[in-house]
Design goal:
about 120 residues; alpha+beta; OB fold (Dihydrolipoamide Acetyltransferase, E2P); two-stranded antiparallel ribbon; signal
Length: about 120
């Protein structure tokens, strides 16, 4: 009887810990999932505007120092697959405008973390 009770408690504890660790890996409120192929990359004064296709599409701003890039570090090549999260709203300050860095395009979010395929 004691063995059964101990095993039951251990199994319940293990399942509880597994559920908690899974809940911590989900995006929090206000974060958007990024996932799809890179369709276009545009240079901005404050980073890179990355246009991502389906299934989780949108235009997102990669800001060095704020955004974390994971292997294979391939955010410059259209056709590479990306996966990550973004939050908030941002603007791409256009580099090739006159005067530079004044015109802005709204983006769907600022990238928090992003990883890429090797393509």
């Amino acid at each position: 009887m004691n063995k059964f009770l101990i095993l039951t408690i251990l199994a319940a504890s293990w399942l509880g810990l597994a559920a908690m660790s899974r809940a911590q890996s989900l995006p929090s409120a206000g974060q958007k999932l990024i996932g799809g192929q890179i369709e276009q990359v545009e240079l901005c004064c404050n980073g890179l505007k990355i246009e991502v296709g389906d299934p989780n599409s949108g235009e997102f701003l990669f800001m060095p120092g704020k955004s974390t890039l994971y292997p294979y570090y391939n955010i410059f090549t259209p056709g590479a697959w990306v996966l990550g999260t973004a939050s908030g709203q941002g603007v791409c300050q256009k580099l090739f405008s006159f005067p530079p860095c004044v015109k802005s395009d709204k983006v769907d979010g600022i990238i928090d973390i992003i990883g890429t395929s090797s393509l």
